[in-house]
Amino acid sequence: MSMMVLLLGMGVLIAAAGLGAVVWAARGGPRWVHGVAKATTVAAELAAAATKNAATKKGCGGSNNSGD
To answer: 18: which residues sit within 8 A by CB, 6+ positions away?
Structure first.
């Protein structure tokens, strides 16, 4: 169980660092920060698209009135 807590903690730290990079890049940080911010934004868009796609495949998306 402690290994899972360690992995989850690392994931949270990486996400927080990505968020910090996005904020810093918005304020005009160095060039490498803009690259990290772009990678973070692309990863977030991919995760959102995957979540939306999975919800649609499960039948959780929208006005599916199959009970009528």
So the answer is: 36, 37, 39, 40, 43
Q: Please compute the mean of the pLDDT values over residues 25-49 and round it to a whole number.
A: 94
Q: What Cα–Cα distance (Å) separates residue 53 from each residue in 38, 43, 50? A: 22, 15, 5
% of the chain exceeding 90 in pLDDT: 72
Of 9, 47, 46, 39, the C-alpha closest to 22 is: 39
Global pTM value: 0.67
Distance of CA 31 to the CA centre of its chain: 22
Name the region of 65 (left: φ>0; alpha: ψ -120 to 50; beta: rest). beta
| Distance, CA of 39 to chain centre | 10
